[in-house]
Design a protein that fits this description.
Layout: H1 35-42, E1 55-60, H2 79-82, E2 87-89, E3 96-98, H3 102-106, E4 112-117, H4 123-126, H5 129-138, H6 165-172, E5 184-188, E6 210-213, H7 254-257, H8 273-276, H9 279-295, H10 305-317, H11 334-340, H12 344-358, E7 362-366, H13 376-401, E8 408-413, E9 417-418, E10 443-444, E11 448-453, E12 462-463, E13 465-466, E14 473-474, H14 480-490, E15 498-500, E16 506-508
Parallel strand pairs: 1-7, 1-8, 4-12, 5-6, 5-7
Antiparallel strand pairs: 2-3, 4-11, 8-11, 9-10, 13-14, 15-16
Helix pairs in contact: 1-10, 12-13
Length: 519
């Protein structure tokens, strides 16, 4: 079996869109009309029915990790299918993971794996990033009518776009306004991650996520590869190479070699840092906003003003160091920092734990680098697998020790899997330094794995079976709609929950069925 596009990714499949302000408030600054009002409108007044989960952490493995090199190895398949790696025995009898996931294998009795998520859209859609991003992140099984893999990345008049899973969560399980933080926060490299399906769609802007860029600037010429810090396939084998334009040179990636997170840059949302130094003046200006609203005769929109003024100020706090700031990782001990790992992914997991403790309903961690068309076995062994093995294991351990795992749903998957058969992305293809790319696996939406843990998920379950090549489900399989339904169910969202679009047309929030085998 081969992928639909064996030549690999086309430029349009990895969009480079202009960066938006980190607050994503549609260009409205804090002190202009709308900041506290928007925060007010994003919250639902009525309490949602509650399941076991209080929060969900969605770990998005952007690019699509290989099922063979993670949770569904095929050691008895021919070498062109099984790959270069061996397996490691898990805590579960007869269940193996990839040999480079030893920590997760030792904890396999504490989470479950669904091996047979799949896309049911037409093949032209289920094997390309843009389409699969939309399908997974919205929890749907088809693109909006009239869209293609090329058009789904751009605004289009008349599109009926389903809300992201995060927006569904914000609507169906709204955060208590007293928490003071947005319902859904997405981290950490937002300037590279403008995926289709992340928006609120039919639900409207009040249920949008707050995207926060915490990672250093990436200066790699190929920013879609496998380094957890700089995300580049073009990895130097000779550390003595100097940065520069020469044929064996390496670019100046000193910024991403230092992976330390920075605090959210709220200046990009329209608030200059000097304004933050005078909180009394800021409060005065916010009070002026209320008077403006009162004079307009719409004071009812700002019931509970003090709560929403506090929430607006919490967003300002996010740009300042201190114990009350969940983004300030310096508040953690060295032992905790080292447990997670101080590279980019580990810091993302640690930030997610702190956001959960702060009361955020859903955190999405973007882990770019899983699009392993070339140099797959070098990069997976050297970077991706050891990183996720350490970060996720430390995260699960920490949640459990703090008593948070029972109320935090952890979900991890990519938008697709990889082809069963190994092949080059292009015969003789070379990187920028002249090195010939080695083989990898390509886009494959027919089957991909998903990890679930915590908050009522039955641990130690391996659900679903694939054929001997690891290419298609054998028996039961589930869609992104079923995954979304599972998340909503564990958060206590009633299956009968409806919402209405701007014209008043009703829609049922649930599109799939919860995966009963793991809950």
């Amino acid at each position: 079996m081969t992928a639909k596009s064996p030549a690999g990714c086309c430029p349009g499949d990895h969009p480079r869109l202009p960066r938006r302000g980190v607050l994503q408030l549609g260009g409205v600054g804090l002190l202009g009309l709308g900041m506290a009002d928007l925060l007010r409108l994003r919250a639902e007044g009525a309490a949602a029915p509650r399941g076991r989960a209080k929060s969900v952490v969605f770990i998005f493995q952007s690019g699509g990790p290989s099922q063979h090199e993670t949770f569904d190895p095929k050691p008895d398949a021919p070498v062109g299918i099984r790959g270069e790696y061996s397996v490691t025995q898990t805590q579960l009898p007869g269940v193996n993971f990839c040999e480079y996931l030893p920590r997760l294998a030792a904890r396999a009795d504490r989470f479950s794996i669904v091996r047979t998520l799949h896309h049911t859209a037409d093949r032209v859609f289920r094997n390309e990033h843009n389409s699969c991003h939309y399908l997974l992140l919205t929890g749907t099984t088809e693109l909006p009518v009239g869209d293609t893999n090329a058009t789904i990345t751009n605004p289009r008049s008349g599109r009926v776009e389903w809300p992201s899973i995060g927006s569904q969560v914000a609507y169906g399980a709204p955060v208590d306004p007293a928490v003071g933080w947005p319902a859904v926060v997405e981290i950490s490299r937002m300037n590279l991650m403008k995926y289709p399906g992340r928006g609120p769609g039919l639900l409207g802007a009040r249920y949008d996520r707050w995207g926060v860029d915490l990672a250093p600037v990436c200066r790699a010429p190929d920013a879609a590869g496998s380094c957890p810090n700089c995300f580049s396939h073009d990895d130097p084998n000779d550390p003595a190479r100097a940065a520069g334009p020469g044929p064996k040179a390496w670019w100046d990636n000193s910024s991403c070699r230092d992976a330390a997170f920075h605090l959210p840059a709220l200046t990009e949302g329209g608030v200059a840092i000097p304004q933050l130094d005078n909180r009394f003046a800021l409060l005065s200006q916010l009070d002026g906003l209320r008077r403006t609203v009162d004079q307009a005769g719409t004071a009812g929109l700002l019931d509970g003003w003090d709560i929403y003024r506090q929430q607006a100020l919490r967003l300002l706090v996010a740009s300042q160091p201190g114990r009350g700031n969940p983004f300030d990782l310096s508040q953690e001990t060295d032992a905790v920092r080292d447990r997670y790992g101080r590279e980019e992914w580990g810091q993302g997991f640690l930030t997610a734990r702190r956001l959960v403790e702060a009361g955020v309903r859903m955190v999405q961690i973007n882990l770019r680098g899983w699009d392993t068309h070339q140099n797959a076995f070098r990069d997976l062994k050297g970077k991706l697998l050891p990183s996720i093995d350490r970060c996720l294991s430390g995260f699960l351990d920490d949640l459990e020790e703090r008593g948070l795992l029972d109320e935090t749903l952890v979900v991890m998957c990519g938008e697709m899997g990889r082809t069963p058969r190994i092949s080059p992305i292009a015969a003789g293809g070379k990187n920028a330094s002249g090195e010939v790319f080695t083989d990898g696996r390509h886009h494959w939406g027919d089957v991909f794995p998903c990890l679930l843990a915590g908050a009522g998920i039955r641990p130690g379950q391996i659900v679903g079976q694939t054929d001997p090549q690891g290419g298609v489900p054998v028996g039961d399989a589930w869609t992104p709609a079923d995954l979304a339904a599972t998340i909503l169910q564990q958060l206590g969202v009633d299956p009968a929950t409806e919402f209405h679009d701007a014209t008043g047309r009703p829609y049922r929030l649930y599109l799939g069925r919860p995966i009963a085998e793991v809950v």
